[in-house]
Amino acid sequence: MTAPGINRRTLAGAAVAGLGLPALAACSGGGSSSPGTGGSSSTPTRGAPATPSGSASGSGTSSPSARPALVDIADLPVGGGTVVAAQEVVVTQPESGRIMCFSAVCTHLGRIVSDVADGTINCGCHGSEFSIADGTVVRGPATTALPTVAITVRAGVVSLA
Questions:
Q1: What is the tens place of the pLDDT at every residue in 56-82?
Q2: How buried is residue 45: exposed, middle or buried, by Cβ count under 10 Å (0-12/13-18/19+)?
């Protein structure tokens, strides 16, 4: 005998919902790579890559009215990048002095990309890969490029514009 309001349908629905939770957690990504492992990447708004200005030695701090610092250029590998999960962006340096920033939200299912390695921004959920140079899809299942994000570079520090 079952309790009032509980039947096979409600029990089956609860079981199916419970099975989906681990799959969602596995696709969440959200972490950033540690230095020396390829890091994460980001690219500025399409057609408008940021170029360093001012001193090459940034302290990583910003004025109260400025946006928070994303990464010091000195910590951004040439040919690689860094995922800044807290800001949902990926900053890349496809070639020396060319800094790009893209949305870190994969265009396939909206998960945060996992890392940057071997010239691509990688989503660990389903394997999509995007170019560090322009955010275009290198390998699906994603079919749409990562949107660019406007940034500024001052005193060797990359910040959101």
A1: 333 344 444 557 899 999 999 999 999
A2: middle
